[in-house]
Amino acid sequence: MTTRETILAIKKELRAAMNGIVSAKMRAAGMPYKLVFGVELPRLTDIAREFSPDKELAVCLWNENIRECKILATLLLPHEEMTVEQAEIWTDELTTDEMAQILVMNQLAKRPWAMDVALRWILSDHQMRILCGFLIIARRMRMGETIHPDSFAQIERRAQSCLTNANPSLSRAIHAIID
Fold first, then answer.
1. Given a cut of 90, is residue 27 above it in pLDDT?
2. Is 129 helix (H, G, I), strand (E, B) or coil?
3. Is the model's pTM score more than 0.90?
4. In sequence order, what DSSP letters do the residues of 5-62 get, joined into one string?
């Protein structure tokens, strides 16, 4: 099956799993996607299991600008294929906090370079990189990773400066670290 045929098969699965009520609510809430099927995460995980992980497929799904395709991209990109460069491209293209959380959970926090990138990202001016950076740090801490005291002091300083203008997602990520 070609990548295009696989994407068509995936979209067929998404249409079959579509939740019209959820989709309508997400569109009404202003979700910035071309299309929203309203498919819940557990069902998307099931759909992803039906297809083999593949970088080309994942990149094509990401570029579809459909909420569920982007989520599937994070599930179908082989972990070893998520490079720092790929992470920065996808992070720069994020338009919702929900997708930032999903990208971190499914890909970014699992990479060996995650903490180094997170420490760099929280110091940036790019709002989605800042959010992803704090989400990575919070997730890695929950996974039991210890942070050097100097790095933690830097994280705390940056967290305090970000809290003054933080949206709810960023605020939750920061409080998961410093509380």
1. no
2. helix
3. yes
4. HHHHHHHHHHHHH--HHHHHHHHHTT--SSB-----HHHHHHHHHTS---HHHHHHHH
